[in-house]
C-alpha cells in the first residue's frame, strides 16, 4: 500500500510539475500573441487571410 | 483539465515526440475553421436571398433585374460611406454582400434560396460549427480507424492549447464584470462544486466505499476532473483501480454533458449567459466546458470562462478538504495524531493553476484601455478560435470509448448520480438567477 501511495504521490508531483511548465508555456504563447496584436504585426485581416473564401 | 496535457510534458526534449500529433491537430483545426468560414460565407447568401424574396412573397412586389439589384446595393453603400466620411455616421459601413448572378437568376426562377445557401443555414440551426466537427469527428476517428501511435502524444499535448485562448479572451472583460459574475460564480462553486465533493465523501462513507475511491471520485466529480483526482489520490491512499474508476466516471459524464448540454440548453430556452453559468458549474473539465460554451455562443463562453477561473482556483481547497476529511478528522476521532501537517500556503502554491494570472493580466490591460475595439475582437473572437480549434481537435481525438468503459462499481453510481444532481440543481439555480446577473457587457 505504501509503495502504491508513493507511486501515486510521485505521479501527482510529476503531473503538477508538468502542468506548471505547461502553464508557463501557455502564458508565453499568450503574451507573444498579445504583443503581436498590440504592435500591429498581426492586423485585422490576418484571420480571414488564413481561409479560402 | 486544468492540466489537459497529463502524461506529456512541454519541453524541447519532447518536441519531436509531440510534433506529429500537434501538426495533425493544427491541420484538423484549420479544416474545421475553413468549414466555418465557408458556411459563414454561404449563410450570407441565404440571408441575402431571403431579403430579396421577402417583398416579393409578402407584398407581391416583382423581383428586379440583376443589374438593378447590383446598382441599388452599390448606391446604398456609397450613400452610407458618404455619411461616414462627412462624420454624420460614426461606424464605417462594410461592403455589401451581392448575390452572384447565376444564384440571383436561379432565385428568381425557383423562388427559394439555392441549396448550398439553405444547407449552410441548416448547419447553423443544428449547431454543426467547428466545435461540433472537431469533437464529433475526432471521436469518430479515434474509435473507428484509431489514432496511430506516432500522433498520440501530440494530440494529448494539443488539448492545453485551449488555455492561451482562455487568457486572451480576457481582453473582453472589465474588472467590474469579472467581480460581479465571479462573485455569483463563487457562490455557485461553493454550493455546487464543493457541495458535490462533500456529498460524495459523506454518501460514499455511508455506502462503505473505500476512502481511496471515494476521495478521488469526490474531488474529480466535484471540482476539476482529472487534475483534482490526481491531486487527491495520494492523500486518500487511492489504488490504481480507484483512480481508473474515478477517471472513467469523470470522462463518461463529461463526454455526455459535452454533447447533450448545448441541445438541452436550447430546449430549455437558456440565454447564452445562463448556459455559460450552467456549464461552468456542471461540467467537470476545462476543455469540455469551454467546448460546450463555445458551441452555444460567444456570450456563453464569456460567462463560462469566469466561472471556470473561479472553479479551477478551488483545486487547492479541494486537496485541503480531502486531507482534513480522510486523514485529519478520522485520526482526531480515533484520538491519535494523524502525523499529517497541512500547510495551506504550500498546497495553494503547489496546486494553483498559474495560467489564471494571465487572464487577470489581460483584464487589467483592457481596463487600462490598452486594446482598441478591433484588437479586442481580434484577440477574443478570431485568434481565440485558432487556439480553441487546435485544442478541440486534441479533445475529440482523445475521447476513447475504452477509457469510458473503465467507469464502474458502487462509486460510479454515487459519482454519476451526484454529478447529475449537481447539473440538474445547477440548471434550476442559474435559470432562477437569470441572464442579467451573468451577462458580460
Summarize the structure.
Chain A has 53 residues and is mainly α. Chain A has helices at residues 2-38, 46-49.
What distinguishing features does this structure have?
heterodimer; A: about 55 residues; mainly alpha; about 75% helix; B: about 450 residues; about 0% strand; elongated; disordered N terminus
| DSSP, total strands of chain A | 0
Termini separation of chain B comes to 27 Å
Helix content of chain B: over 70%
Compute the separation of the termini of chain A in Å.
61 Å
- Strand count of chain B: 0
Instruction: Give the amount of beta strand of chain A, in percent.
Output: under 5%
The succession of helices and strands of chain B, N to C, reads: HHHHHHHHHHHHHHHHHHHH
Average pLDDT reading of chain B: 84
H/E order of the elements of chain A? Answer: HH
Low-confidence stretches of chain B: 1-6
Mean pLDDT of chain A: 81
Radius of gyration of chain A: 20 Å
Amino acid at each position: 500500500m505504501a509503495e502504491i501511495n508513493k507511486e501515486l504521490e510521485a505521479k501527482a508531483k510529476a503531473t503538477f510539475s508538468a502542468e506548471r511548465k505547461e502553464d508557463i508555456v501557455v502564458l508565453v504563447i499568450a503574451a507573444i500573441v498579445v504583443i503581436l496584436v498590440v504592435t500591429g504585426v498581426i492586423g485585422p485581416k490576418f484571420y480571414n487571410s488564413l481561409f479560402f473564401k | 483539465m486544468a492540466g489537459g496535457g497529463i502524461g506529456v510534458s512541454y519541453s524541447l526534449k519532447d518536441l519531436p515526440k509531440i510534433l506529429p500529433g500537434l501538426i495533425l491537430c493544427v491541420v484538423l483545426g484549420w479544416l474545421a475553421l475553413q468549414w466555418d468560414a465557408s458556411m459563414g460565407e454561404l449563410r450570407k447568401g441565404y440571408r441575402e436571398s431571403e431579403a430579396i424574396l421577402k417583398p416579393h412573397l409578402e407584398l407581391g412586389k416583382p423581383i428586379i433585374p440583376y443589374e438593378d439589384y447590383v446598382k441599388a446595393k452599390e448606391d446604398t453603400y456609397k450613400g452610407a460611406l458618404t455619411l461616414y466620411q462627412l462624420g454624420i455616421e460614426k461606424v464605417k459601413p462594410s461592403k455589401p454582400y451581392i448575390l452572384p448572378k447565376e444564384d440571383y437568376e436561379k432565385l428568381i426562377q425557383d423562388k427559394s434560396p439555392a441549396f448550398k445557401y439553405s444547407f449552410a443555414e441548416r448547419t447553423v440551426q443544428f449547431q454543426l460549427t467547428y466545435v461540433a466537427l472537431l469533437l464529433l469527428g475526432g471521436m469518430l476517428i479515434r474509435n473507428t480507424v484509431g489514432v496511430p501511435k506516432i500522433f498520440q502524444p501530440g494530440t494529448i499535448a494539443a488539448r492545453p492549447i485551449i488555455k492561451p485562448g482562455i487568457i486572451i479572451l480576457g481582453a473582453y472583460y472589465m474588472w467590474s464584470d469579472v467581480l460581479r459574475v465571479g462573485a455569483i460564480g463563487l457562490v455557485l462553486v461553493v454550493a455546487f462544486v464543493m457541495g458535490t465533493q462533500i456529498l460524495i465523501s459523506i454518501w460514499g462513507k455511508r455506502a462503505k466505499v473505500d476512502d481511496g475511491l471515494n476521495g478521488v471520485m469526490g474531488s474529480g466529480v466535484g471540482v476539476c476532473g482529472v487534475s483534482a483526482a490526481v491531486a487527491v489520490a495520494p492523500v486518500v491512499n487511492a489504488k490504481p483501480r480507484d483512480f481508473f474508476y474515478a477517471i472513467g466516471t469523470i470522462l463518461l459524464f463529461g463526454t455526455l454533458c459535452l454533447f447533450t448540454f448545448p441541445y438541452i440548453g436550447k430546449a430549455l430556452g437558456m440565454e447564452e449567459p445562463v448556459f455559460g453559468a450552467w456549464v461552468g458549474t456542471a461540467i467537470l473539465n476545462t476543455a469540455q466546458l469551454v467546448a460546450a460554451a463555445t458551441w452555444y455562443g460567444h456570450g456563453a463562453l464569456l460567462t463560462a470562462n469566469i466561472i471556470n477561473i473561479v472553479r479551477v482556483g478551488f483545486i487547492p481547497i479541494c486537496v485541503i478538504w480531502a486531507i482534513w476529511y480522510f486523514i485529519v478528522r478520522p485520526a482526531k476521532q480515533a484520538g491519535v495524531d494523524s502525523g499529517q501537517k497541512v500547510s495551506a500556503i504550500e498546497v495553494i502554491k503547489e496546486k494553483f493553476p498559474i495560467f489564471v494570472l494571465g487572464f487577470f493580466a489581460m483584464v487589467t490591460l483592457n481596463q487600462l484601455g490598452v486594446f482598441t475595439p478591433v484588437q479586442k475582437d481580434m484577440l477574443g473572437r478570431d485568434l481565440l478560435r485558432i487556439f480553441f480549434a487546435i485544442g478541440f481537435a486534441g479533445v475529440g481525438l482523445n475521447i476513447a470509448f475504452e477509457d469510458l468503459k473503465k467507469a464502474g462499481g458502487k462509486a460510479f453510481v454515487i459519482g454519476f448520480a451526484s454529478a447529475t444532481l449537481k447539473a440538474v440543481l445547477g440548471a434550476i439555480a442559474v435559470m432562477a438567477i437569470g441572464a442579467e446577473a451573468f451577462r458580460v457587457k
